[in-house]
Amino acid sequence: MTAMDETCSDARRAHAVMRRRLLWGGLAGAAALGGGGLAWWQLTPPAVAGETASLWSLRFPRPQGGELLMQSLRGRPLLVNFWATWCPPCVEELPLLNRFYREQAAAGWQVLGLAVDQPTAVRTFLQKMPLAFPVGLAGLEGAGLARTLGNLSGGLPFSVVFGREGAVLGRKMGRLTSQDLQVWATLK
Question: Domain 55-185 in CATH: superfamily?
């Protein structure tokens, strides 16, 4: 084998290594782009057009008896919080929601807790931690309702803010903060 043959062979090997690196880099880039696109698609809430139309016709049993009519909450800003007694972040944010309700009620704000839980568990919980805002027993159907309102992962807590006209103005998956509520208080 001559020196020229060795040089050509080295060049071919280097070229093959370069092609493999480019191929693997391209595959990694495509996978990252595909994963990012999938995450964006999953985390982007669905379009809000029409999703609230059926909400206002719903009724929920109240833990203490009687019914809560969603129609009665229409026309003023409303924060709906989906929660459960077995969900630690849900329980942790309830005092914050209670304070928001007391402080913002004079400004027309309403808060509604929809418990995605067993009625007995909710009644027992509310005896220990009474809430000033109304609570409805959504049960397992509450998870489906939350999904139609943009909770694509089905997790709790999940909050949705509705304006006076009934349009969705904001959503949050996970525990609320004081800053979230301060921003939402400016919406109407």
Answer: Glutaredoxin (3.40.30.10)
Q: For residue range 95-124, list pLDDT tens digits in order.
A: 999 999 999 999 999 999 999 999 999 999
Q: Which residues contact 137 (CB under 8 A, 6 or more apart)?
A: 60, 61, 62, 63, 115, 117, 119, 122
Write phi, then psi, for 26 (nearest 5 degrees): -65, -45
Within 10 angstroms of residue 140's Cβ, the number of other Cβ atoms is: 9
**Residues 3, 9: Cα–Cα separation, whole Å:** 10
Question: What is the model's pTM?
Answer: 0.74
Nearest Cα to Cα of residue 110 among 161, 61, 63, 146: 161
**Segments making up each domain of the chain, as ranges:** 1-42, 55-185
